[in-house]
Design brief:
Length: 314
Amino acid sequence: MVLLITRQVPEAVAARAEREFSTRALDMQGKFDAAVLLANLGGVDAILCTPADRFDAGLIGQLPQTVRVIGTFSVGLEHIDLAAAQARGIAICNTPDVLSVATAELALTLMLMAARRAGEGERLLRAGKWTGLTPTFHLGTGVAGKVLGILGMGRIGRELAEMARGLRMRIHYRNRTRLDSLLEAGAIHHDDDASFLAACDFLSINVPGGPATRHWLNAERISLLRPGAIVVNTGRGTTVDDAALTAALRSRHVAAAGLDVFSDEPAIDPGYLALENVVLLPHIGSATVEARNAMGFLALDGIAAVLGTGQSVI
Ligand code: DGY
């Protein structure tokens, strides 16, 4: 079976792919090039892609009939038109669960960095502007005893909650449905945005992208946050209205933000670049060796199961 891989994958994943398939590696960099993909699809049974590769209805319509499955190196599926794939009988497999710990760790990193102004402090030091310690120098905010509001209490949200409890934070959450008490583990559920946002000292966004969550964090909802709240986003950039968040960061209604995902990544809204009170990371939520290997293996399991070449079943 022929597997086309759009971008460079970890060595262990590439090695396994080569053992199990006849592989064609495109090693695309930067912007996804649909024409290059299409030119290389002759005889291909399966594609292993990434969230940076846009499989819209137009592209899916042009895939050769031989393509039976697309595996994506992500839990997110926003970059694939699922209805178009279904209409063509192409199976889709993604990589849930195995990246939850890594992504929660990064949300925690951003939260602490934003709270303690870590990015700003490092920039100051590297610029040779540190003149020494005074009791009022570079004051941040502590997290112990504060409320962490988690939007989206799925696998990543729940991992984050568990980690944050270790920091003695109090967990509130907003989710499509209330969790059972075992999964809730004492977290306070809110069934409306207003009470949820008013409770948050920290807000972590852990929902998928797509039309249902587009610009969920808009000016109106930001105004409902406690003044001085800190916002973290490791879900999808499209969930945040950048104009509204940058305005709130400028006015300090939102004291700081930590962002790993952006609406038009890798482009960044220039409004963020001008602000000291925002920590910006290049979509590295799942970028640990452990998570990326596990994601690659899971995607290969899914592809093999669809093609009937492997032992595992999805
Ligand atoms: C995902 O899996 O959707 C991440 O955002 C990419 O690692």
